[in-house]
Amino acid sequence: MSAKRIGITLGDQAGIGPEIVDAALKAGEWPADVQFEIIGKRIQATPGEPTWETAKAALEALEEGASKLQNGEIDAIVTAPVAKEGLHTVGFEFPGQTEFFADRLGTENYAMCLAGEHLTVALVTIHVSLAEVPQLLTEREIIRVGKLLEEFCLRKGVEQPRIAVCGLNPHAGENGAFGLEDLEIVTPAIKKLNEGHKVPVFTGPHSADTIFRPAANGEYDAVLCMYHDQGLIPLKLLDFDTGVNTTLGLPRPRTSPDHGTAFQIAGQGVASHSSMLHAIKLAVELA
Hints:
Structural class: alpha/beta
Strand content: 15-25%
Order of helices and strands: EHEHEHHEEHHEHEHEHEEH
Number of helices: 10
GO molecular function: metal ion binding; NAD binding; oxidoreductase activity
CATH topology of the largest domain: Isopropylmalate Dehydrogenase
Organism: Rubritalea squalenifaciens DSM 18772
CATH architecture of the largest domain: 3-Layer(aba) Sandwich
Largest sheet: 10 strands, mixed
Strand order of the largest sheet: 2-1-3-10-9-4-5-8-6-7
Shape: globular
Keywords: Metal-binding, NAD, Oxidoreductase
Low-confidence stretches: none
CATH class of the largest domain: Alpha Beta
Helix content: 25-40%
Number of strands: 10
Radius of gyration: 19 Å
Number of domains: 2
InterPro entries: PdxA_fam
């Protein structure tokens, strides 16, 4: 069996990326058939002081990593946190790393998913304003992302996934009292997602203010969320130290920790490497 080759970027090196990567690699007990490669050059950076140079180095590492992933030089990639504001000053034209890797790997059918110790969530809409969500939410998109989430659960070894689908509106619309999207878009999508399954995989629409408690207690394997904060607030509340961001639908795995650059604590020796450790472990598992 050939070795699994895992590439790791350092993110914006004025942040905590370099220190949590180093700590996670030292902390993990890695299989003998796994090889790690740090992608991008280590540069001189002052902790907590991002510059044009640190942003440029971060973007160059992303480009190199995406190229290696696409060409099969690595089997998976783990990306350390970047500062989007800085990246935009050096030509980064994407809302986030999720969209960047989908573009560079030529993938149109992709989704953002975060998995932690207690919760796994996938997002139907990602980096858009809340005002745009109702217009972007379609039956087709819910079905598309739902299928990617089901595939992820199966790949993780869940033989019969149980996926809860959140409603868009408070109380999942209260039968039309608080909007019609849950009746006219979400419910028909759930019905179509379950077609062909002897046992329903998807249930809902569930009220988002209650569904995460049973999900965290193990009654569901994943939750399909309609927008960014609907899924990420409970995920980061419960699983900040174990949460991993992974891009569903790519031909090869891409993972990252569920937090940002944390410039304010960079270089102080207090940053937790836990999420990065879990991101590397998931990349190894999926590779």
